[in-house]
Specification:
It is built from 8 helices and no strands. By secondary structure, the protein is an all-alpha fold. It folds into 2 domains: about 50 residues, no CATH class; about 60 residues. The longest helix is centred in the last third of the chain and has 18 residues. The chain is globular and about 50 Å long.
């Protein structure tokens, strides 16, 4: 009996000593890469994670924020819209709303389109947590500004 246990233990030893990082560890590693300024490494890891698990909104939120920091707004929008599709959180909607506003300022010919998207996103943000007055004030201020600056 002991020999069988020892054999099983020896056969599993490599997996006990080394195991591939799980999704959580890899997501944390991607965030660490980004914080270290290694955005391309972070993006590569996040894209790999998204291929393995396309339903983790945090992967797409992280991708969107990194792309935003790199001023790649189209990629940021795609990632954040995917994140919102999976799970519309305040963080996702806040980031997406701000990027829509940035697109409105960046593309004057399309200001109406991007402003409307930003207002809609801010309203979705408000619906998630209508009792948080500080966050609500921020959202209402952005909506008023968008509506007053056609």
């Amino acid at each position: 009996m002991f020999k069988i246990f020892l054999l099983i233990l020896l056969l599993n030893l490599p997996s006990l000593i080394w195991s591939a990082p799980n999704q959580e560890e890899r997501l944390k590693q991607a965030i660490t890469f980004s914080n270290q300024g290694k955005n391309e490494d972070a993006i590569a890891l996040l894209i790999s994670l998204s291929a393995e698990n396309s339903n983790d909104y945090r992967v797409f939120l992280s991708l969107g924020l990194i792309y935003r920091g790199m001023d790649k707004l189209d990629e940021a929008i795609n990632a954040l819209e995917r994140s919102v599709q999976i799970k519309p959180t305040e963080d996702c909607l806040y980031a997406l709303s701000l990027i829509y506003e940035a697109m409105s300022a960046r593309l004057p010919a399309e200001t109406d389109r991007w402003s409307a998207k930003a207002c809609a996103s801010w309203n979705d943000f408000l619906r998630l947590n209508p009792v948080d007055t500080k966050r609500s004030e921020v959202a209402y201020r952005h909506i008023r500004q968008l509506q007053n600056n056609p």
